[in-house]
């Protein structure tokens, strides 16, 4: 099976930054769906505006925005308090099990082929509550217990946004039943992953040629929503030409300098389901080494300031000195969803050429023929087993 070649998977940060297509999805239309599918086919990544721009405010009442700045800021604040203030016992009491819970520094290695040491990050995977009973599916740390309502509300809002994106993609793919994709997600809670990349101390042994914040990987499910913070860059995507490019926190001339757009990317399952029409793009998070420890992509010393080489126009004043926080919402079809071909005329004639293509990058990937026999849950388990090693065990049902 040919594997997906990822150049410089452990190379230092890219000097280039990318301007992704930006969409306002507060209304649904086939034209918007088509534009989103085109962006997803070209880049696999796009931005959506989670709230109206100033000029849209008059019409905002007729539009549906599920996310607002105060809601997102509050959830980031909960995340910061958990990672910075909670005692280690509160975290380890909820250590990861069945892909839910706390993941300590270096526990996950997203690109085991390139990095001997695990990723320089800690995270907490919070599954949405069971959609029938409303019960949380895991023990919650005390910090989260106190914020039960806010966390449920955030899950609900993200679920609505994700369903809308899935409907728009179905429209763009000319699937006659526009709920076909969204329906495969019924009763499947999304997973919110809170991430914290701590500032590297001056005496760190972090080696930018060997270590990474989050190793090169593709996402496993259908789509991911990624929330980031002003002044905290680091995300890079692998472009179709094989070079890395940084995704700035704000697009050029964006209407807000405090509330970034949401990054949306396509995961392996949606790429597979569309016979590779939609790209599951490899991405990574590169950390800025402390001053005096910067290296260029070829390993030589550089005097580039600690900004990951990203363009920080429009308020994106990143600094290597800041901790980085992000929140990824992994949207996954139901565990038992069979990976049967999607009823879209745009993807049907791609099937034969696509059979031996490998989807995604990272541990546990397989080719399109190999995926035919899998369910959504089988695929997710294979990927998690490869990146968490012995820490991952599939839940018995
Ligand atoms: O932190 C980020 O910006 C990206 C995280 C990510 O790609 C992941 O956890 O899969």
From TrEMBL:
- InterPro entries with a match to the protein in the record: DIOX_N, IPNS-like_FE2OG_OXY, IPNS-like_sf, Iron_ascorbate_oxido_reductase, Oxoglu/Fe-dep_dioxygenase_dom
Alphabetical list of PROSITE patterns matching this protein: FE2OG_OXY
Domain Fe2OG dioxygenase, by residue range, is 188-333
Which portions of the sequence form the region Disordered? 290-318
Question: Compositionally biased, Polar residues: which spans?
Answer: 297-316
Any idea which UniProt keywords this protein has?
Answer: Iron, Metal-binding, Oxidoreductase
Q: Which family does it belong to?
A: Belongs to the iron/ascorbate-dependent oxidoreductase family.
The name on file for this protein is: Fe2OG dioxygenase domain-containing protein
Give the organism the record lists: Exophiala sideris
